[in-house]
Specification:
- By secondary structure, this protein is of the alpha/beta class.
- Helices cover 42% and strands 17% of the residues.
- It has two domains: 78 residues, no CATH class; 289 residues, TIM Barrel (Alpha-Beta Barrel).
Length: 369
Amino acid sequence: MPPRVHVLICIVYRRRISHDPQRCANIGTTKDRISDHMGLYSAIARPLLFRFPPETAHRVGDYALRFTPLWRALRPLLATRNERLNTSVAGIEFPNPVGVAAGLDKDCKFLPGLLDIGFGFATGGTVTLDPRPGNARPRVIRETGQRALLNALGFPGDGLEAAEKQLQRLPVDRRSQILVSISGTEIEDIAECHRRLQPLVAGIEVNVSSPNTAGLRTFHEPENLDRLVSALVAQRERPLLVKLPPWRNDEERSEMIPMAATSLKAGADGLVIANTHPTEDERLAMGRGGFSGAPLFGDTLRMVKDLRTELGKDFALIACGGIGTADQVWQLMQAGASAVQLYTSFIYEGPGLPGRINRDLVKLMSASH
């Protein structure tokens, strides 16, 4: 291992070292041992971060992930590369199926850092045409006992122009692992985001399902959804995915499955299933928000099975919701998911998570043959 990597690792964990890298030998020389030390996030870093309000802690994490030299140096130790992990999503080739969901990097400022720690792809945004402050605070609540979050953010962000500038700075090879989420309440606004951002990324995810954004339910109507997707398909240069709301019962299922069918019939290349689960909670200023985290995995698995049963296999399907282990990724892929997206589990587990999932996933793949 290069001496500078030893030094960087020791700095991260505030370990005292000499100029001799052997003094850091106890950190380990294999990826598994590095992963163990990244577990210090759970033991040390997370308790410190969780002393702050959720949005403050998020900003601290944002700044840390922008320190590209550190994560680039750690990439050989954190990221897992194995041919068995190679993944195709709507014709886009990723080095592994474990991605980051939209919402973590709303303004596309630290996507390279997410790739360096081992994610196969990262989704920036959600980007809207104009800057937005988001909803009133408090708008994020941790449910630590459930390893979950409640959020009512409502697309806070710097808008299209700022995101476009950030993506233009990325090297072409990094763009090949980037998706960007776009949304809005007017078709013309969403189409403008789509037109300007799609040349800069591998694919576009259009979000018609946030439970925290006023006016977005208009696209739950089949006619409006068809008009939106058709408008985007007419100018499509990159694969287009539609992110759908979840369903928890037969009544909701009877609404959402037609949304999925409408999206695909209008020409979308695939679906992302699903967004956060709508929840009422008086602790949020809005009184309602979206629930994400570990308890949702069973629903995500069921929805993947429902979509494959109802609509077949001829479309890409990214699973999102409650995913945090290789076994869960494997179950979803066996059920028909093309890839997965993480968010809340990453908040709780930290930068060692994607590498650990991928290493364990390789073992599961090997055992299945």
